Every structure is written in C-alpha cells, then in structure tokens.
Predict the structure.
Amino acid sequence: MLMNMKDLLEVANRNYFAVPAFNVSDYSMFMGIMESCERTGSPVIIEIHPLELDFTGTDFTEAIVKRAYKSPVPVCLHLDHCGDFGKFICAIQAGFTSVMFDGSGLPFEENMAGAKKIVEIAHPANVSVEAELGTIGSADDQAETGAEQIIYTNPEDAVKFVQETGVDTLAVAIGTSHGLYPGGMTPKLRLDILKDIKAKVSIPLVLHGGSNNSDEEIKESVKLGINKINISSDIKAAYYDKMREVLEDRSLREPNIIQPFCMEAMQKVVEHKLELFRTMGKAALYK
C-alpha cells in the first residue's frame, strides 16, 4: 500500500520503531528491497535523491508507485535532499508521497521560510514534508554533499522550527555523516541532544547518514525516538561489491543471472537494518 510519510511514521512514533529509507536508482535494487520487506512484514520508505532522479527519470518512479500500490506492506516514495522548487513540483506530479526540503545550509530564518513554502505546496496534494535542522557531515566523495563541520541541532530551535513551518518530520544533526566512514574514523552520536529534542518535539525524528554507524548507537537512537533512518551507502556497497566479484567470471553476460547474486548480498544488509530498527513485522500495525 502506498502512503505518505506522515501517516507511515505516526505509527512508528507511537510504537518506538524506525522505518528505513533506502536510496535506490536501480530497479533490481528496488525489487530486492521490496522482497525483503514483504517477506518480513516490514514497512519501508523508498528514497530517491535528486541526482538519482535525474539519472532514472520519472518513468522509474511511476513503476515504483505501481508496485507500491500492489504491496501488502506500507510503502512511502520520498524525494531526498532537495532545494530546487521545480524538482519538488516534478516529484509531486510523478507520484512521490513525501519530499524533503533541505535548507540546512541556510540561515535559520531562511531555512524556516523555505520549509514553510514547500509545506504550502505539498500538503494540499497529501504529500508529506521533511526538513533538516543542523548539518550532516560527509565521509566520502561519492556520498551526498555534507557540511565541512557538523552543527548539532539546537533543541529550542527545533521547537520553533516545527511550530512555524508545519513540517511532518524533522531530520536532526546528532553527529552522523553521509557515506562510508574511512578506516580510523569512529562517529559518536550525541544521544543526549536526541533525548532533549524528543522531549520537546512531538513529530517523528529522522537520522541521516545512517550507514556505517555502530549497531549499538543506532539501536539506542531508535529506543530514544528516531523513527526514520536513511540508508544508502551500505546497501550499494554490498550490491556492487558482489557484482564485481560475480563479473570476475567473464563468461557471464545476462542480467537475470548476474543481478540476483547482487540482490541477495544487498538483502542481507537490508534485513539486518530491518531487525536493528525494530521494523520487522510492524506492517501488521497498519491494518
């Protein structure tokens, strides 16, 4: 079933679990994710970055929407980090049920004004809006653009931001970075800040840069109220590492032979995240 993110995450917020948002730009990856989520009875967010959308075009998203309608589990189609007004309109027309306004690099007042503008556009179409307060780092040069310095979310600012903008979900900065962390880099999440924000803000909270963090910290962040966690680098690394291995056999050429191995490797990561986020079986809460 296709849902917007507000309705999807309200259930997660009440029941203290998180829904993974998997970034995809390949239909085989999407199929593998859906197979895992349906097999485990898990709600899921399929997320596409604007650069991925440029690559795939909206025909890909139309196929996702059609597949989501048929699914027995809740599915949200979400446009990731975007600041392009025209792309928001394009995404809404293409069937996205949620969009993210990323004004985290703007001054606070401009970030609020931008988020409020997108809310005014999206809500009449029953499309949810996510925004970000504070900055996320970037761990490698293939990851989504991040800030050179992480600015932690101020809990008092979060209260004002949510009240003034009417956003449905808020991505908070508590010490994560986009991408895969290089050897020797160990992130430390500011769970104390998360606790403070959760005590003051009632809407679902989002963790960006969820790949490659320690399982214990992620597990604790879910217990403390994170309801959506973005995963991109982890699943793509598993998928393409396996593809490189399979393609060492130069006699192989058919995608239907090569890609199932890659999907299976990725699914191991997907299902680990579903278990870690306490998502498995939660589709039953939506019936």
About this structure: The first strand starts at residue 19 and ends at 23. The chain has eleven helices and ten strands.
